[in-house]
Design brief:
TIM Barrel; seven-stranded mixed beta sheet; 45% helix
Length: 597
């Protein structure tokens, strides 16, 4: 049962993602012939090539001419003509510079020149914008693909977009560029890992093409999108007929192993855990569920991935010490649901062994911890182990505020290479924090940030406005908290609250004064749902507070000028190269002077 695990577009191009490396490693440990392909980074290599952009420019010219031939023009036609004309005007310099832009991102001497970096970043984003213009209403960016019709949220509309040559650039990229590079006839199973909403249309497009071109393949999908929406797939026979034979939900390693075993032995799939499948025209959802102890799962393998193609001057590797969340109580989150409200983690020695081995194998010291939140206890133990071994690494990770976080912990972490921390602030109002069940207060947040900053660590905070019942005054308290702590909060990312399916807010709406959850039958696999409340800010008011927060940040947080340009992985490299106080490399320049330069 030769198997290929594919990670599809559209995701950040700065590093590999962990799903395929874990699945591939586990299947190999079980004796299966398993390989992996990162079609995400390989598609970027196509989208950011002169050859593709010439095709795009010709498509834009043809589209512009078609509009001009119309006997009368709508407002939308005129707007599209302006977009196409502007894009074509700048297409020649973009095409001529796109290869150099990729070179800048992959070459240390060029990457760390901020002006060169920004120019390359602008060219890359402009090149993707050309593809967006040619395939409008679809939108392609460094992190997203949107159909413009919300087809990614609908099992009914997805097939149409996945077959639409005019609006879906992946059809041509797959057929002309990626599919011919693999011997599909040699495989028995193709697994496609879809972890984010931006991958739904690209991933399903690939699945549809494979299902039609290679009928001998068993196409299996997986990822949290399908885990959260498993119940929505009942009765969706057309979805399976179009895209796949089965779907693995929740943790995939052991279920995929058992699926391969059943396929090889010709067994019925009714006993396979974590599986949804089509059986004689009927969608079956197996009730059995299995999860492994995470400490028993082999570490990920990056073998076979094109490390030279990622847009980074050094390999930046994702690692994971735990699955699930050690806290697991935040009422807006579905992470614990996806892992069955279970939490498991690697032993400290095994975690540092993995970092050491990967560092030596790939010649890198850069790691991004992919844990939902790393506990203070784990951070203390890992830091001590790194320091004892003298391992030279640089890391970023995500944390939840805890009272036990003191200056000693953060100094130890900084010495062990944790130079970039991302905190789930969410709010700085104690009532809202209690309603979220964060297990922290504003005082705890302030104290931890102060200790971390004093240790020389860069602190980034995530937050949102519009949690159910939040008032404008409470939202303003969060903005004031940012304003009053500019010496210990170095950057932040605000947003507007989204109601996630299967979160506590979704399951117990009355507790949060949610009077109605708006279920759009057509958007049957939407991750975020609209809702109505009778207490607190409206959604529009939450957007207003978010905009006010951004304006404040633009005025008082000059570092956001750089943070807003870079993905977090690149920012980690810049922090290591230049330090927290001088990200440009201009000795003696303050952050404010740097960002205004």
């Amino acid at each position: 049962m030769k198997t290929l695990i594919v990670y599809p577009p559209q995701w950040y191009p700065s590093q590999p993602y962990l799903s395929a490396p874990y699945l591939c490693s586990y299947l190999r440990a079980k004796g299966w012939d398993a390989r992996q392909r990162d079609f995400n980074i390989e598609s970027y290599d196509r989208f950011l090539s002169p050859e593709w952009l010439e095709i795009v420019a010709e498509k834009m010219r043809a589209r512009l001419e078609t509009i001009r031939q119309k006997p009368s023009l709508t407002i939308q036609d005129k707007s599209m003509m302006d977009v196409l004309s502007t894009g074509l005007k700048f297409s020649v310099p973009i095409i001529s510079q796109v290869e150099e832009a990729k070179k800048v991102m992959r070459t240390p001497d060029l990457f760390f020149q901020l002006d060169s970096y920004r120019q390359a970043d602008m060219i890359i984003k402009s090149a993707l914008k050309l593809t967006s213009d040619a395939f409008a209403p679809s939108v392609l960016t460094l992190s997203t693909f949107e159909s413009g019709t919300f087809a990614e949220e609908s099992t009914r509309r997805a097939p149409e977009v996945c077959r639409d040559l005019a609006a879906n650039p992946y059809i041509q990229v797959y057929e002309d560029y990626l599919l011919p590079t693999e011997r599909w006839e040699d495989y028995d199973v193709a697994g496609i890992s879809i972890v984010g909403i931006s991958q739904i249309i690209p991933g399903l497009t690939l699945a549809s093409l494979l299902k039609k071109k290679y009928p001998h393949l068993h196409i299996v999908l997986g990822g949290p999108i399908f885990s959260v929406n498993a119940g929505q797939l009942a009765g969706q026979t057309k979805f399976f007929e179009e895209f796949c034979h089965s779907i693995v939900t929740f943790e995939g390693e052991e279920p995929l192993h058992q699926l391969l075993t059943s396929l090889k032995e010709g067994k019925n799939l009714s006993e396979n855990p974590n599986l949804i499948y089509l059986d004689e025209g009927e969608v079956k959802i197996n009730s059995q569920r299995v999860e492994l102890r995470f400490e028993d799962v082999p570490g990920p393998t990056f073998d076979g991935l094109p490390m030279d193609k990622y847009l980074s001057p050094y390999p930046i590797l994702p690692i994971l010490q735990s699955r699930g969340c050690y806290w697991g109580k935040c009422t807006f989150c579905t992470h614990s649901y996806v892992y069955g409200h279970r939490y498991g983690k690697q032993r400290t020695e095994a975690m540092v062994d993995e970092m050491d081995a990967l560092s030596k194998k790939y010649g890198t010291k850069y790691f991004t911890w992919s844990d939902e939140a790393v506990s203070p206890h784990s951070l203390n133990d890992v830091s001590e182990e790194i320091l004892e071994r003298g391992l030279d690494v640089r890391s970023l990770c995500l944390l939840k505020f805890e009272k036990v976080m003191d200056g000693g912990l953060f100094k130890k972490m900084k010495d062990a290479g944790f130079i970039f921390l991302m905190f789930g602030l969410e709010s700085a109002n104690d009532r809202i924090l209690a309603l979220i069940d964060k297990g922290a207060t504003k005082a705890i947040e302030r104290q931890a940030l102060r200790h971390s900053a004093d240790a020389g660590i860069w602190n980034h905070c995530f937050l949102f406005f519009g949690f159910p019942t939040e008032t404008r005054e409470e939202a303003k308290e969060t903005i004031d908290f940012l304003r009053d702590n500019t010496d210990s909060i170095h950057s932040f990312g605000p947003g507007v609250f989204l109601l996630n399916r299967d979160s506590s807010c979704y399951q117990f709406p009355e507790k949060f004064s949610i009077t109605k959850i708006i279920q759009d039958a057509d958007a049957d696999v939407a991750m975020n749902l609209d809702f109505e409340i009778d207490v607190g800010m409206t959604r529009n008011e939450a957007k207003e507070m978010n905009a006010a927060c951004i304006r404040m940040g633009e005025e008082l947080f000059p570092s956001l000028d750089i943070w807003g340009t870079m993905p977090r992985e690149h920012f980690l490299l810049y922090l290591d190269r230049y330090g927290k106080s001088d990200l440009s490399g201009n000795k003696g320049a303050s952050e404010k002077e740097l960002c205004k330069a």
